[in-house]
Amino acid sequence: MNPSVKTLGAPLAALLLALALALPARAAEPPILRIDAGMHTAVIKRIGVDAENRFLVTGSDDKTVRVWDLGTGRLLRTLRPPLGPGNEGKVFAVALSPDGATVACGGWTGYEWDGSHAIYLFDRQSGRLLRPLPGLPNVIFHLAFSRDGRYLAALGAKNGLRVYETRGWAA
């Protein structure tokens, strides 16, 4: 047996055990495996652009949001809102803040976890999920930032129109 494998075996096992004990106990959920074709694989429901027409975002029934360079048409990043089986994760609405920094998306999003829907906010450049805006009673169909970026408007089935202040994200 390779001596380096023997030496790494015990520390690696201890690390894995420590990680397993640190995680909260919950029912095992099977991973959702997906092939990334480098483009949407289902209907695109909405598009959005920043104020200077540098970036385009698209939201799709394939449960992804894609960020494109508007000048070249090149895919820059794929954003992946939380998803689940069935409709959970389908994106019906997207918006890009006027400065191009924040991507908002919504649709059939968040219902599986708490019985309400959510808007997800992502950092466009890093792709990091910044925060959810939870508690919406139904799916989101339209999102739009105000021209100055101070507000995000959300329209959905049975939600009416909700307007969030982008400073603090209060509705």
Question: Can you offer a commentary on this structure?
Answer:
This protein is mainly beta. The chain has one domain: YVTN repeat-like/Quinoprotein amine dehydrogenase (Methylamine Dehydrogenase, Chain H, 7 Propeller), CATH 2.130.10. The chain contains 2 helices and 11 strands. The protein has helices at 3-22, 111-114, and strands at 44-49, 55-60, 65-69, 75-79, 90-96, 102-108, 117-123, 129-136, 140-145, 151-156, 160-165. The strands form 3 sheets. Strands 1-2-3-4 form a 4-stranded antiparallel beta sheet, with no helix packed on it. It has a 4-stranded antiparallel beta sheet with strand order 5-6-7-8, with no helix packed on it. The longest helix has 20 residues, at 3-22. The protein is globular, with a radius of gyration of 19 Å.
Q: Number of DSSP helices?
A: 2
Beta-strand residue fraction? 35-45%
Largest sheet: 4 strands, antiparallel
Mean pLDDT: 83
N-to-C span: 62 Å
Low-confidence parts: 1-8, 22-26
CATH homologous superfamily, by name? YVTN repeat-like/Quinoprotein amine dehydrogenase
Radius of gyration, in angstroms, nearest whole number: 19 Å
Number of strands: 11
Q: CATH topology, anyone?
A: Methylamine Dehydrogenase, Chain H
In what order do the strands lie side by side in the largest sheet?
A: 1-2-3-4
Q: How many domains make up the coordinates?
A: 1
Name the helicity range.
Answer: 10-25%
- CATH class (first level) name: Mainly Beta
- Provide the succession of SSEs: HEEEEEEHEEEEE
- The structure class reads mainly beta
* C-alpha geometry: globular
Looking at the overall shape, the CATH architecture is 7 Propeller
